[in-house]
Amino acid sequence: MDLKKRRKILEKKKTIHDLIKRASSIDDPLSPFDSFRRYRRNDLSLYLESGRGDRLSSSVKQYIRNLLKTNMEGFYGSDWPIQAKVKRKEMSSADAHYIFVRELRFGKAYETSTRRACMEECNQIAGFVHYRFTLEEEIPVLYVYEIQLESWVQGKGLGEFLMQLIELIASKNRMSAIVLTVLTFNAFAMTFYMSKLGYRISSISPSKANLPTFSAKYEILCKTFDSEAKFVLEVCPFAAPPLTFMTKLLIKYNILVLLLLFILVLY
Ligand SMILES: CC(C)(COP(=O)(O)OP(=O)(O)OC[C@H]1O[C@@H](n2cnc3c(N)ncnc32)[C@H](O)[C@@H]1OP(=O)(O)O)[C@@H](O)C(=O)NCCC(=O)NCCS
């Protein structure tokens, strides 16, 4: 590769790196979208506020753990204890951005710092989004780690509203796509993202990437905003060629083959 081309690639990498760094350091990504701070529809009166993983109070951490357990334990089944541990670690990362949805019951939201303490106590959380600005296949993306709503606010348009806001935050911070992971058993969430919001199964998703994970329990979905992101995350240019029947058999039975070889070596 000639020097000029190499320099161009390095410059591009630096620009993307700076983009992610800048987006990640913004204290309140909701501030350009004040009209989205309130949600008054379908008998709900809610407000939104930003949060950061490394600044969560212990009661909020406990709340997140409880809601995750309520909403997700059934989908993960016996994998839940491991997943809960992973999610607990992810939850407090300095890279974790949050949108908290709170009930608007007592006083106006986000008024003064003196009222804030009361509002944290009085205005209960009804759900949250955990997202991050990161790189996926060298593409700058907003990755939605979690969107979790309490059952009493579900099915009232709030999820769609939050995902619209997520799209605005992604565009404002010049991200090229939104990426998220969804469990295949979570049929409603799959329909919600794909039919309602127009997400597509990404080329990096196990089912598309022809990885030897025949029983992957999740899909990676994406919504892309430019042609490069579309090419990399949707069109699947780097996917391996489909595995032949023999290769699949070999992968499936490789443990058996290794065991036989081991026995042969022993004797
Ligand atoms: C998935 C989730 C974020 C969606 O948010 P939501 O606020 O419930 O969804 P919305 O009300 O915006 O629904 C959008 C569409 O789905 C439909 N819908 C909502 N709830 C539904 C339900 N229980 N069954 C079938 N359709 C439903 C709505 O009717 C709406 O379609 P419409 O506008 O054409 O009527 C939310 O339900 C949730 O937190 N679920 C539990 C946790 C979870 O599964 N998170 C996703 C992990 S990847």
From TrEMBL:
<dbReference type="Pfam" id="PF00583">
    <property type="entry name" value="Acetyltransf_1"/>
</dbReference>
<keyword id="KW-0808">Transferase</keyword>
<feature type="transmembrane region" description="Helical">
    <location>
        <begin position="249"/>
        <end position="266"/>
    </location>
</feature>
<keyword id="KW-0472">Membrane</keyword>
<protein>
    <submittedName>
        <fullName>Acyl-CoA N-acyltransferase</fullName>
    </submittedName>
</protein>
<keyword id="KW-0012">Acyltransferase</keyword>
<dbReference type="InterPro" id="IPR039949">
    <property type="entry name" value="NAA40"/>
</dbReference>
<dbReference type="GO" id="GO:0043998">
    <property type="term" value="F:histone H2A acetyltransferase activity"/>
</dbReference>
<dbReference type="InterPro" id="IPR000182">
    <property type="entry name" value="GNAT_dom"/>
</dbReference>
<keyword id="KW-0812">Transmembrane</keyword>
<keyword id="KW-1133">Transmembrane helix</keyword>
<dbReference type="GO" id="GO:0005737">
    <property type="term" value="C:cytoplasm"/>
</dbReference>
<dbReference type="GO" id="GO:0005634">
    <property type="term" value="C:nucleus"/>
</dbReference>
<feature type="transmembrane region" description="Helical">
    <location>
        <begin position="177"/>
        <end position="195"/>
    </location>
</feature>
<keyword id="KW-0539">Nucleus</keyword>
<feature type="domain" description="N-acetyltransferase">
    <location>
        <begin position="116"/>
        <end position="199"/>
    </location>
</feature>
<dbReference type="GO" id="GO:0010485">
    <property type="term" value="F:histone H4 acetyltransferase activity"/>
</dbReference>
<dbReference type="GO" id="GO:1990189">
    <property type="term" value="F:protein N-terminal-serine acetyltransferase activity"/>
</dbReference>
<keyword id="KW-0963">Cytoplasm</keyword>
